[in-house]
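Appendix B. Extra example for self-study. Work through it before the problem class; the solution is given directly after the inputs so you can check yourself.
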Amino acid sequence: MKPLADIFHSAEARAHSETDEYSRDEVRLANRNSGALLETLGLDVTPTGTHYLLTHFDVPLLDAGAHELRFHGRFARPCTLTLDEIRAMPAETLPVTMECAGNGRAGVAPRSRSQPWIYEAVGTSEWTGTPLAPLIETAGPLADTVEISFTGADRGFDAGHLHAFGRSLTLQQLADLDVLLVYAMNGQPLLPQHGAPLRIIVPGWYGMASVKWLTDIEALAAPYQGYQQVKTYQFRDTREDVGRPITEIRVKSLMVPPGVPDWLTRARYVQAGRVDLVGRAWSGGGVPVARVEVGVGDDWFDAELEPSPGRYAWAKWRFAWDAAPGEHRLRCRATDANGAVQPLDAPWDVSGFANNAAQVVDVLVVKPSG
Amino acid sequence: MKPLADIFHSAEARAHSETDEYSRDEVRLANRNSGALLETLGLDVTPTGTHYLLTHFDVPLLDAGAHELRFHGRFARPCTLTLDEIRAMPAETLPVTMECAGNGRAGVAPRSRSQPWIYEAVGTSEWTGTPLAPLIETAGPLADTVEISFTGADRGFDAGHLHAFGRSLTLQQLADLDVLLVYAMNGQPLLPQHGAPLRIIVPGWYGMASVKWLTDIEALAAPYQGYQQVKTYQFRDTREDVGRPITEIRVKSLMVPPGVPDWLTRARYVQAGRVDLVGRAWSGGGVPVARVEVGVGDDWFDAELEPSPGRYAWAKWRFAWDAAPGEHRLRCRATDANGAVQPLDAPWDVSGFANNAAQVVDVLVVKPSG
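Solution. Structure tokens for the complete assembly:
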């Protein structure tokens, strides 16, 4: 381990790995941050407790009764709201598919050493809260306001910078997005690890925008310079690249791996014959999924697509596969209503963000026994 | 990737790694299996959804309404019980600290390639169910019965063996242990990933004994030969070793890492002055923890120990540390009422089971700012 002073006092860029071997730091993050269980993708709502979690720092354990949300900065009417006051406002429940911007990072080579997601960092929950836009309007951004920032109670270091997790949205984005100020998830109060007692949900965007443990909403006369806004969560072709902000989720799909798994490799073992493949597909910005194809080796077939349970929620798909004995590589790829289609190979990004390459599931099909 | 046929058709032993680099298989498991968040160790009950999860195969999504538990084999009165019938029986709620037998595996060198837990595979929940022993008695094991086996609905391969997850207990163990037949966790119906609709909890033992998705209870006239009983979950000094069954949890303790973390390394940054360290300590078999010591470098200090919230639940401890600027290595170690004490170095086991070595937390202490 390098001297701690180096960790906390130097702004060294994230190392890359050229190999498919992972460091203890990456494994520690993988144990701590939890991915969805692909076998539950048949369900509209990810079972509580299995929605993916990416926690930058420590989960703050906040007192809901004492919690306050402060509106300050360039607001005409700065104010402070309690949880009870927010709960008394018009409530809305929205099923939202959320995905971590780092999902698929382990598939991008060379790999940025960070949380090494493979496919798992996605989930859908029913989020309950009150629409944020009317609250911002009530607080009244002054004429010089360009952005609204959102700050959580979670604090720590990233590449030598001590900061609280924060993000911002422009006034235009706030007008366009159905941002919810959320206090419940799947009909229960928010769990500590999901941002209790208060967070925002920015539907259609990658998860970094949906700030947890929300304490501050600030109106700003200049673009927000928070670390998680300007330093991370940017697409970069090279380390020197100035970066392009990560926003809407890219079109993607996943399947429930068929048959039964091998413990260590998670490879699949399937009885020959008709196999009902099912999975999910989603895109960002409220754009519907238009098509899902299933790949069996090099052949692609159209899957049957069900209506999505909500504008921002994933759609279910099905495909009846006639599985012949042998080894098969299954894949799935979605196309959205804008014509965006999943690539077969990982798109390049220095930090491994937004890898929406088609999932690969290797399957051994055997003759039915008995 | 090796040919799938090799994965499913050969009983190759788990590979060892001599390095601190991890394979994609290990990372896939680490993403999928989720560890507790150490910052929540101050709480008696692990927040729902953050209790550690080790899922051997796929989570089965079972229909609670149609679920049946079959008592069969060498019972005088074989029977089948529905969930409603079990819920109508005398109910008991027990706080139980559960730990995965593989917890700490990543600290054992050379490392067995499997789920690479560091410290996280432990949690405490309040489990509600009905005591199992009276049900076994009602079913009436015949005179030749030596063991009772418990089988779940989860199936898959391990080292070439296709099997449903199953474990057994002897009649004597059943008489000695407060085994609960469980349908609720923290006051809510069991979640799918925790064994819904029905599981057992074997308090004081490592987690492998607490079979999830329970479908079958069988009385056996010969020792159970299930894969997860005789092939895995055995202590072995060498691969050729016949093995000694893993049973009760070894004495252990963990601390909430103080201060704030660095994202990538999880190293800690602390302001100098009084730091209130808190953590948990537990042992197996209902044996209370007698002492917890906190190590600061090579110096050890006694922590203050609170009464445990239950015979099988972890105890909270506290230690006021006067933190001086500089780099410090913090550790904690517990001693139980039987005099068992945590080692400072990982005990050897071929599969990396039951590593109860003292936790190490590296901390940079800085002069208070402002």
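Self-check: Chain B touches chain A through 71 residues (CB under 8 Å). If your reasoning did not lead you there, revisit section 3.
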